[in-house]
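[Automated response] Your request has been received and processed.

Submitted sequence:
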Amino acid sequence: MRILAVDLGNVRTGIAISDPSGLICRPLAIVEQSDHETLALHIATVAEREDVSTVLVGWPRSLSGRENEQSANSERFARRLEELFEGSVVLWDERFTTKLARRLPKEPGKADDARAACYLLQSYLDAPRATRKV
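Generated structure:
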């Protein structure tokens, strides 16, 4: 089953998806939606359509590991998504994903958000299975 990753933003949210074997990922979409309730409904619909078993939600934390306003926002979003999606919802450390995405060559008309979601997802796929929370 596939895994979907969400790089949650205030205006734009990047989405990436794994291949069915769970080895690699690709950017899927950028959703321009500032209302997180509408966004959660959209993400749940995409996850069902794409036969996803797990949705990762990027969990921004400070370099020291402390929580902040953005991490609390991601936690609220993940809780709401759990109510809408029948599979697993996992918060996953997203530190540096946006910086990594910005280092890639720019593609005309494309934002970094979906590529940041792909970095988030690939870090999850590359993590030892013992550290995954699925």
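Summary generated for your ticket: DSSP finds four helices and five strands in the chain. Residues 69-84 form the longest helix (16 residues).
If you did not submit this request, please reply to this message.
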